Amino acid sequence: MKKxxxxxxxRRMKAILSVVLAIICVIYVLPVVTVVMNSFKQNTYVKxxxxxxxxxxxxxxxxxxxxxxxFGNYPFWKxxxxxxxxxxxxxxxxxxxxxxxxxxxxxVNSKLCKLIYYLCVFSMVVPFQMVMYTLSKTADQxxxxxxxxxxxxxLGFGAGLAIxxxxxxxxxxxxxxEEAASIDGCGPVKTFFQVVFPMLRPTMISVGxxxxxxxxxxxxxxYLVLDINSYRTIPIQIQYLKGSYGTVDLGATMALILLSxxxxxxxxxxxxxxxxxxxxxxxxxx
Length: 286
What we know:
The chain has 286 residues and is mainly alpha-helical. It contains 13 helices and no strands. It has helices spanning 2-38, 43-48, 63-70, 76-108, 111-123, 132-141, 150-170, 175-183, 188-199, 201-217, 220-225, 234-239, 250-282. The longest helix is centred in the first third of the chain and has 37 residues, at 2-38.
């Protein structure tokens, strides 16, 4: 009888947990569904029937997408190109330089390396708002205010998390592998790029996914650093989707938001299994 009661209680708990998780899932998905529905509605009905499914009366078809992509004097394709370039360059720099730094920190293990590691970890908890004004001024003085140089700024902000994950994974790699490469005549640079770097693939994928999602969707840093009259990313372009007297076409805005999140959602769905693997691999040793 006790076993039957325990089994019933376990089933009841699982059922309750499933319902709770289903509700949480709906809460998280609802904003995305709302954006999708409103991107096909006329501007008036976006305000009045926000959560209603588009019909013949309220539907705007593909008009919102066309209007959003052709609105104003700044072309949408140009903003998308700058967003793509900044994201790719920033992610590439972060993966390359932080992996090398993490390998050096993990293998040298001196007091200076420990200090650098803890400073990188500490940078993860520093809010961006604390340094944004100083950063924007410094970026202007160092000429880091273009799409080709702003990845250096992203490298500084993304280094903390990346080094934290890479150091944990490097410590799990047997040192004997690198010693064997050294005996075979490999120097430090050759050992890293031919032996260690390929083994960092799980963590590289995880870091890459997280950094791409961050940089692609970032609004505040490009807004503060870039000259928005010459260079705009997709989030900045959406912000300036305004008509006369500051009126906003919410239908066109929702359409552009949908276009901006589709690539990230597809990329995340294709690579989400690597995030857990990379995080778990990087947490083997602290």
